[in-house]
Amino acid sequence: MTVATQRGGGGGSSGLYDVLELILDRGLVIDAYVRVSLLGIEILQIDVRVVVASVDTYLRFAEACNRLDLEAGPGKPAGLTELNRSGARGKTKGALPRAEETISGTFQQARHEGRERQSDRAARRRGE
Amino acid sequence: MSTYVYGIIRASHPSLAKDLDGIGDPPRPVRVLRQGELAAIVSDAPDQLRPKRRDLLAHQRVLAEAGAGGVVLPMRFASASPDDDTVTEVLAERAEHFLERLRALDGTAEYNVKANHDEEAVIRLIMTDHHDIRSLAEANREAGGGTQEDRIRLGEMIAAAVQEREAADARLLHQALEPLAEAVSAGPQSSGWLANFSFLVEGGSAERFLAAVDAFRREHLHLELRVNGPLPPYSFVDTPSSRQVDGGTAEAFGAAAAQPDG
Question: Taking the model in full, what pTM does it have?
Answer without folding.
Answer: 0.73
